Amino acid sequence: MSTATLTHTPAPAAPATRTSSVHDLRLLVGRALRRDSRMLDAMIVNVVLPVAIMITFVYVFGGAIDTGTGGLPYIDFVVPAVMLMSGGYGAAATAAAITEDMTGGMIDRFRTLPVASWTVPASHVVASLARNLATTGIALAVAFALGFRPDATVLDWLLVVVVVAAYILTVSAMAVVWGLLVRSVQAASAFSFAVLFVPYVSDAFVPVESMPAVLRAFAEHQPTTPLVETLRSLLLDLPLGDAGWWTAAWLALGTVVAVPAAAVLFRRRTAR
């Protein structure tokens, strides 16, 4: 009588479970925000620096500056610029964060996980938006304490939030591009100083009419000027003119260029 031999074939290993991209993004945003919360010194600088600039201009230079806006208090004139500086300076720090991930070995760990690659740079942008909307709100609260009195309606305030959020998103995406182009955190940090400096050559703190011809030409045709004018018009019930259209155009252009560039650069940097 023959005896049947049973051969046990082990089941193949189950492939790693891929979660949804939205789930990946949520987890990575949480990671970025937790890391930011542990860097209290950087968060303090993001809040204190724009506020310190505002106090300096209002109480040191403000009395000597003619805003050309029919007696508008200087603090009302300058607060829209401070809001942009607060959000933009913090958003620019995204460059250092993405560079740290690229050079510190974190990307190698992500390669071993079933994570959609695009969610890594996107998480830095979304975390930057949440973080810098909060710091901008703190700077605005300080401005109210110093005497800022806007005339904005509820709809105006909603539009202000939209403009500031779009600006933060655009600068964050551009910061990711810069952070992927350079090879060190120190070089990536230079983007913050560039973003902080640009508002000075605009009508953020003084009317462009007071500038020399060359600087005036640059100030009138760079993004910060229509951005500040748009916020100023919404907050203080001033004529908007064509500043709103220029603001939308500059933000759309920055996003359309920066987002695909960030995707291409990240794909190239992480290719095996």
From TrEMBL:
Instruction: Give the membrane topology.
Output: Multi-pass membrane protein
Give start and end of each ABC transmembrane type-2 domain: 41-269
Stored Pfam families: ABC2_membrane
An example GO CC term for this entry is: ATP-binding cassette (ABC) transporter complex
* Localisation: Cell membrane; Membrane
Which domain of life does the UniProt lineage start with? Bacteria
Q: What is this protein called?
A: Transport permease protein
**Native source species:** Georgenia subflava
